[in-house]
């Protein structure tokens, strides 16, 4: 039996990079996977990989995580198909350079919307189902920039810092409902955001472990690769 047998996982940004690698790892561990993102062609590629490796069909839902209506509809569609949502991986992110002095309000808001508001909207949308079943595992992808900051990446750093605070808050609010909420910092990965770094597949065992935490496991904490 797999560590995630009979679980249903939503993965945002599932069309490439860490989202794709994590979705495949979830399926290999026995979970049914829902892929969310703005690029259905990329999501379908991931779904095809899942079928090839596991013979499981993944659900593909085009959705912009910054749009509350689209998020709510996506979660409703997932629940209609699977009847439950056990795992949420908030992976979708935007990384664009820009110092405070140079950033426009629109550029700032774009990164905050994807990197912080998006996870908030997804968490809010899945909580009713998780509360009802008294079970949920939420994993938010963070970065070392959340604590250290970095010149030229003001909006991204601030958004990830906010995500860490949001994670601790939700962990405190939902622990009594059997919902564990944690952060994972994978370090630098070789993805569309970075041309160098580790293969995303290297860190997926850590993410599967967080998704499979038993009752009484850690919550509101940061976990890192290595």
Structural summary, described in words:
With 226 residues, the protein is an alpha/beta fold. The chain has one domain (8-224): 3-Layer(aba) Sandwich (Rossmann fold). It contains seven helices and seven strands, in the order βαβαβαβαβααβαβ. It has helices spanning 17-28, 40-54, 68-82, 105-133, 145-148, 154-174, 204-211; strands at 8-12, 32-37, 59-62, 87-90, 136-141, 179-185, 222-224. A seven-stranded parallel β-sheet has the order 3-2-1-4-5-6-7, with helices on both faces. Helix 3 (68-82) packs parallel to helix 4 (105-133). The two termini are 26 Å apart. Pfam families: adh_short. Belongs to the short-chain dehydrogenases/reductases (SDR) family. This is SDR family oxidoreductase.
Which labels suit this protein?
Rossmann fold, oxidoreductase, 46% helix, 7-stranded parallel β-sheet, KR_dom, globular, alpha/beta, SDR family oxidoreductase, 226 residues, 7 strands, 7 helices, NAD(P)-bd_dom_sf
